[in-house]
Specification:
By secondary structure, the chain is an alpha+beta fold. The protein has 4 helices and 10 strands; from the N terminus they run βαββββββαββαβα. It folds into 2 domains: about 140 residues, Roll (Ubiquitin-like (UB roll)), CATH 3.10.20.90; about 40 residues. Helix content is about 35%, strand content about 25%. GO terms for molecular function: zinc ion binding.
Length: about 210
C-alpha cells in the first residue's frame, strides 16, 4: 500500500552539475531513452507515466476502446489497468504541461484540472507516493533520481474524492458516468444473485439429505 510522503525540497544544480548528472544518467540507461543537454542549458529526455485512473475518461468516439457509454460525439470509457505512456519532454516542462500532454496523446477531452501527477519511490520495502505541485519539473526529478523506475516512477491519478472539482465535469460527462455506474451495479447484482442461488441450492441439497427417510 502506498504511503504518503512529504514533498522533498528542491535542490538547484549548477550547469556543471547538470552536465555531470546527465553523463552519469546516460551511462546507466538500459532502454536507450537518454537525455540531451542543449547549449542553452535546457535538457530534454523521456519519462514514463503509469495511468492509474479509477473513473472513466472522455474521448472522441472515433478514438474509444473497451467498455463505454456514448453521448453525441464523445465516449466515456475506462482506461486499461497498468497502461504506461512514454513522453519526450524538456527540463522546462511543468507537471501541469505533462498532464496536458498525456491527455492530448490519449485524445482525452476531460479537463486537466481533474488529474494529478504523483511520484512514487521504493525505500526499505515500502512504497512512498507524493503528489507533485503543478509547477514542479518531472524531468529534473527523473535526472536526480536516475533512470531506474524502482527509484522513482510517475503515476497519473484523479484527484482524491474530496479534491474532485465537480464543476470541471460537463453534464454529458456526468450522465455518462451514471450510466456506467448503473451498468456495473446491475452486473454486480447479477453476480451476487447467482452466488446466493448456488449457496441456497447446496443448503437445500444438504437439508434434503438430512431429512431423507432411512
Amino acid at each position: 500500500q502506498d504511503v504518503q510522503k512529504e514533498r522533498e525540497p528542491h535542490v538547484y544544480l549548477s550547469k556543471e552539475e547538470v552536465k555531470e548528472k546527465i553523463q552519469s544518467y546516460n551511462s546507466s540507461v538500459t532502454d536507450k531513452l537518454k537525455m540531451t543537454l542543449n547549449t542553452n542549458g535546457i535538457y530534454t529526455g523521456f519519462i514514463k507515466v503509469q495511468m492509474e485512473l479509477c473513473r472513466p475518461i472522455t474521448v472522441q468516439s472515433s478514438q474509444s476502446q473497451g467498455r463505454c457509454a456514448h453521448s453525441n460525439n464523445e465516449t466515456a470509457f475506462y482506461l486499461p489497468d497498468g497502461c504506461v505512456n512514454t513522453l519526450h519532454i524538456s527540463s522546462t516542462n511543468t507537471v501541469r504541461e505533462v498532464i496536458e500532454a498525456l491527455l492530448k496523446k490519449f485524445f482525452v477531452a476531460d479537463n486537466p484540472a481533474k488529474f494529478a501527477l504523483y511520484k512514487r519511490c521504493h525505500k526499505e520495502d515500502q512504497v512512498y507516493t507524493c503528489k507533485l505541485s503543478d509547477r514542479e519539473h518531472p524531468l529534473y526529478l527523473r535526472l536526480v533520481a536516475g533512470p531506474r523506475t524502482e527509484m522513482l516512477s510517475f503515476v497519473l491519478r484523479e484527484h482524491e474524492t474530496g479534491e474532485v472539482m465537480w464543476e470541471a465535469f460537463s453534464i454529458p460527462e456526468l450522465q455518462n458516468f451514471l450510466r456506467i455506474l448503473d451498468k456495473e451495479e446491475n452486473e454486480q447484482l447479477q453476480i451476487l444473485k447467482k452466488r446466493y442461488a448456488v449457496y441456497r441450492g447446496k443448503l437445500e441439497e444438504a437439508l434434503g439429505g438430512v431429512w431423507k427417510p432411512g
